[in-house]
């Protein structure tokens, strides 16, 4: 083993976890986004609200917490007030935003790809050129998407969150495509995207 590899092994410098912590890694993008005035919508002592850079619907914002919490996995009951605050900020935003009579969903991805705990606020048109894959679709339209109210409720009831396992998350993302507003079963993503437009026009 080379000296560098031995040193990395001792310090843990080359582990996947530590690679992800490197500034500039794509998974740290939200921390850079909160510094970008073009994306920042509002902020307070506890959170930054940003526009999602690759929105999966006409309206898609993220409430990013300032406390160094990676994801729901790290949440304990002591973070209850923070979760309630994130939910309140998200709900206020949906009330402020009159968006073509859209409904909004407020929730977390069970297995997020980006670092720093963030809450999605997304309009239910799901009409966006950035929505390109089954994974994108299912991440907002299956139990992979955990409503903020459910997270708060289960933390109130128990001391820790029961999050779906890795296997379950994989299954949710691989579910067959299904319209979120009716029983239409699309053949593929282009078919689904064409179909959901009919709901937007109603
Ligand atoms: P997830 O980690 O799966 O809960 O979602 C991360 C969200 O962050 C996705 O909706 C992405 O479109 C969005 N995103 C990825 N990179 C950036 C970035 N640099 N700035 C703002 N939003 C981003
Ligand atoms: Zn439909």
TrEMBL record:
SUPFAM superfamilies tied to this protein: HIT-like
GO molecular function terms attached to this record: DNA 5'-adenosine monophosphate hydrolase activity; double-stranded RNA binding; metal ion binding; mismatched DNA binding; single-strand break-containing DNA binding; single-stranded DNA binding
Primary localization class, coarse: nucleus
UniProt-listed Pfam families: DcpS_C (PF11969), zf-C2HE (PF16278)
Transmembrane regions listed in the UniProt entry: none
Biological processes per GO annotation: single strand break repair
The protein's name: HIT domain-containing protein
Keywords annotated in UniProt: DNA damage, DNA repair, DNA-binding, Metal-binding, Nucleus, Zinc
GO CC terms: nucleus
Organism for this UniProt entry: Henosepilachna vigintioctopunctata
Gene3D superfamilies to which the protein is assigned, alphabetical: HIT-like
Superkingdom per UniProt: Eukaryota
Compartment(s): Nucleus
Domain HIT: 27-131
